[in-house]
Amino acid sequence: MPKNEAKDIKSLGFTFEMFSLADDNAFDTFLDEVLNEQAKILEGRLGTETYNAVVSPWQENVKRAEKAMVAAELIGRRINIILSNVSGAGQEIDTKNEEKQRLKYEREAEDLIGKLISGISLEQQGFSSGVLVTSHFS
User: Fold this and answer.
1) Contact 41, 96 (CB under 8 A)
2) Contact, 6 vs 71, CB < 8 A?
3) Tens digits of residue pLDDT in 51-84
4) Buried-most residue among 32, 37, 43, 71 (CB within 10 A)?
5) By C-alpha distance, which of 29, 26, 38 is closest to 2?
6) Which of 38-42, 73-77, 119-123, 124-128 has the lowest mean pLDDT?
7) Residue 117 Cα distances to 7, 106, 137, angstroms
């Protein structure tokens, strides 16, 4: 079960118009699907025990990682919508800003996931041995 709700994602500035949806109810359904998908991916990467942690700061970091993953996924889908609206050959659409924002969210999620997997809180810095972090974003 996702740690975030549709309202958490909306607070990042996403709107139903960005995804060519009819209204806010359709957007909530759409967000629930994306939240569930990304929650399953995150739980698979972290393991059920870490994903369901109830101790700070892990609980908050899992929620933040999930939120960043959802935001990256939504921006990727938004880029696809923008590119699909190109009407003719030779027309270029600039999605550099969207891509930069998507990468920012991906990096945030990867950083949080790496720290959660290695057991390091965000306040700690240092060396961690024996941890391999892979990304499903590439």
Assistant:
1) no
2) no
3) 998 888 899 999 999 999 999 999 999 999 998 8
4) 71
5) 38
6) 124-128
7) 27, 16, 17
For residues 110 and 113, what is the distance between their CA atoms, to the nearest angstrom?
Answer: 5
Residue corresponding to tokens 């030779």? 90
Instruction: Quickly list H helices, 12-128.
Output: 24-46, 48-51, 58-84, 96-118
For tokens 């949806």, the residue is: 21
Give yes or no for a contact between 137 and 72, defined as CB atoms under 8 angstroms apart.
yes
- Stated length of the chain: 138
- Residue 26 structure tokens: 């359709």
Pairwise CA distance, residues 90 & 73, whole Å:
27
